[in-house]
Design goal:
Elements lengths: L4 H23 L3 E3 H5 L6 E3 L2 E3 L2 E3 L5 H43 L4 H6 L11 H9 L3 H28 L5 H27 L5 H21 L1 H15 L1 H12 L2
Antiparallel strand pairs: 1-4, 2-3
Length: 255
């Protein structure tokens, strides 16, 4: 079976999108210090009475890639393409969590428990409990992340499309960065609001404060990664050919 360049491009972009979204959800249970990672002192940002540092979910490492690829899909396949891969990704994220829950519920083998009874520092370790704690996330976090993902993706796709029409396909940086900044603002607040206010015990001020710090990071990353959009655009245009690329973009603009 022979695939066209357009089909191959869509498959590759969807593969990158799916992989990064699902991996980000799985690794999201770990919280790391961005300042320590970069060798900086704690930020201590004052928001709504809270002194907050950049303690980020590990999923923040590759989550910006999801929105970049989303913009690239929108660029060449339109809003319909983004909606298709977003709904599919949400379904697969739910499926992945069910598999992870099932895997963590399996009775552990005695020899596996025995050979992993000590951690790297020689301290007692319950490997089965650690496995379950790492792979299982609270239902609030799961619900919040999926709802925020879908809302963020739909907003990103629509804003990107509108900016593209207003600028007549000029200023890639504006439609890409602008759509990501707006969608990430919604994503940052929705996921924490659902996970820790609706299902958790955080007060509203704390949700707003932590969401604010998360958004500062995402805003910075959206701007910093703008050159990557141009690089991917250049590579894809070379792959498709200028004429085919132009036709796809024009069609996607009003798709």
């Amino acid at each position: 079976m022979n695939f066209t360049k357009k089909q191959i491009l869509f498959i590759v972009l969807c593969g990158i999108f799916l992989t990064n979204a699902i991996v980000a959800e799985i690794i999201g249970g770990k919280i790391f210090s961005l300042e320590n990672t970069l060798g900086f002192p704690p930020a201590g940002i004052k928001i709504f009475g809270y002194s907050l540092d950049f303690n980020m979910t590990a999923g923040a490492i590759n989550w910006p890639i999801v929105f970049i690829i989303s913009d690239i899909i929108n660029e060449y396949f339109g809003v319909k393409g983004v909606k298709y891969i977003s709904y599919l990704t949400a379904i697969l994220i739910v499926y992945a969590f069910f598999v992870l829950y099932a895997a963590s519920a399996l009775p552990p083998a005695a020899f596996w428990m025995d050979i992993n009874k000590l951690d790297l520092q020689g301290k007692p370790l319950d490997i089965n409990n650690a496995y379950s704690m790492i792979l299982r996330q609270g239902m609030g976090i799961i619900a919040g992340s999926i709802i925020a993902f879908l809302i963020g993706q739909m907003v990103d796709a629509l804003v990107f499309s509108k900016l593209r029409q207003w600028t007549s396909n000029r200023m890639i940086w504006l439609r890409s960065t602008g759509s990501t900044i707006i969608s990430q603002l919604i994503d940052s607040f929705v996921v924490l609001f659902i996970a820790f206010y609706v299902f958790g015990k955080w007060d509203f001020a704390q949700v707003m404060a932590v969401s604010g710090v998360n958004y500062i990071y995402k805003f910075t990353m959206a701007v910093a990664l703008t050159p990557l959009i141009y690089l991917l655009h250049y590579i894809i245009d070379k792959y498709l050919g200028d004429e085919a690329s132009h036709q796809m973009i024009e069609k996607a603009t009003f798709n």
